[in-house]
Structure prediction request, 255 residues.
Amino acid sequence: MSSNDPFGTTGLADAGSVTHTPRMATSIRDLTKEYVLKSETVRALRGVSFDVPEGDYVAIMGPSGSGKSTLLNILGGLDHVTDGQVWFRDLDLTDMSDRQLTRYRRDHVGFVFQYYNLVPSLTARENVQLVTDVAPDPMPAAEALELVGLSTRMDHFPSELSGGEQQRGAIARAIAKRPEILLCDEPTGALDSTTGVQVLEALRDINDRFGTTTVVITHNAEIRRMAHRVIYFQDGKISRIEENDTLLAPSEIVW
Ligand SMILES: Nc1ncnc2c1ncn2[C@@H]1O[C@H](COP(=O)(O)OP(=O)(O)OP(=O)(O)O)[C@@H](O)[C@H]1O
Ligand SMILES: [Mg+2]
Prediction:
């Protein structure tokens, strides 16, 4: 981002405004996504609209095939929409070229996937450095690893880490560039309950500490109780949105 004030907000505080409207991290409107195959067209998203306020921790739930990953990929600039609109803050992603989307991902987005995708031949620290070496304003790799409780495991290779530690390493890699939005596709899907809780704690801690807007796809009904907002998908549409006033700590969640 070249400007120090990319959203033109400098000086607004002096304008005498007294009402505070939370700024939206992402907004989508009437989003559809179709995959055109030889024999059929799959309608993965069929008219989806919602807003995620800055700093929110959002869980997305719904049956297999209901469009959750498709949506996350679009929010993260990994895929184009068929119809409708998608914004990140004031940035309209809808018609961006691949090159512009790559830039958007690089500057703003952190991803965490179910399978950790750490490079096997690199240590935890080196895996994080892959990102910090190219990011404009990263935190030191050691700091990112410390935030997820891996300070004593930095020089371990992925094969020398447990599943939960590998996933926390992947989270460290995702947050080291200080993303404004963290997108997680079933981050605890491959983990048992204890390690799953450690990973959730790490995500929750980052959300609390940095206000990083976080969107987590999960099949685990209990995770939703630690989210500000839960969006339920069914057949490519939102069937329900719940808002939670009181959030459970990850350690209070029964698996
Ligand atoms: N690249 C693709 N080409 C064609 N169809 C696709 C593609 N990706 C996803 N789909 C289809 O789109 C629909 C939504 O898929 P999506 O991956 O978003 O589901 P999901 O809710 O993430 O499911 P799961 O919980 O199993 O991960 C499914 O019917 C799927 O088969
Ligand atoms: Mg999926």
Observations:
- The CA atoms of residues 29 and 85 lie 5 Å apart.
